[in-house]
Amino acid sequence: MIHEVDEVLKSLLGGGALAGSGIDVVLDAPTRDWAARRNAPTINAYLYDIREDVNRRQRGHVPVYDERDVVVKRRQPPRWFRLSYLVTAWTRQPQDEHRLLSAALATLIPREVLAPGELPGALGALGMSVPVSVAGTQTESRSLAEIWSALGGELKPSLDVVITAPFPAYPEYDAGPPVTEGAAVRVRTLDDTPTGPEERAHRPRQVAAVRDARRAARRGRGTGGAL
């Protein structure tokens, strides 16, 4: 799932205001050695943090439907994870880097939510919209200065882009068949002799309605009797 989010972000950054510019969009760690090897204008989107958004965690089960709109399986709701990217621009001049960052910001600001049809592979198959946050308040425990220090580079202007993506929970299990009969209670004596006709202790309303309709149909045909 993470690689699909990478693909989404690269596609977003390569389009919009940067469409047709020929600017490279990469996911490499922007270390000092990487910066020394760079020889073309580049947008770097470095994934530096992954953590669950516990506020989105749900309980219970989610039905899985087949092509007939019948529930065939059940599974746990997906877990949501915040993928945080450090987006930076790399050119020979700071002014050019600022222009690239401005173009990236203009591209990402309108894309607050990505529809399922815009998402690739298994991410799109979940049928859920994915929120995107850009340059918001940083909530991760590590500061950007600490991240740059860990990378061995100097602090640069950057955009903090967070994509919160669902990750499917496993396993799935088969759903039971639909209920078509009510519960029945049969009473027998100690010598296993029936004491009388069975008593219906519980009958779901929808089941009772079906049985009553069947009785009415049988009476209409002159057959009578109960099912």
From TrEMBL:
Spell out the residue ranges making up region: Disordered: 192-227
Q: Which InterPro entries match?
A: Pvc16_N
Top-rank taxon: Bacteria
Q: One matching Pfam family, short form?
A: Pvc16_N
Per the database record, which ranges form the Pvc16 N-terminal domain?
4-181
- Name by which UniProt lists this protein: DUF4255 domain-containing protein
To which species is this protein native? Streptomyces andamanensis
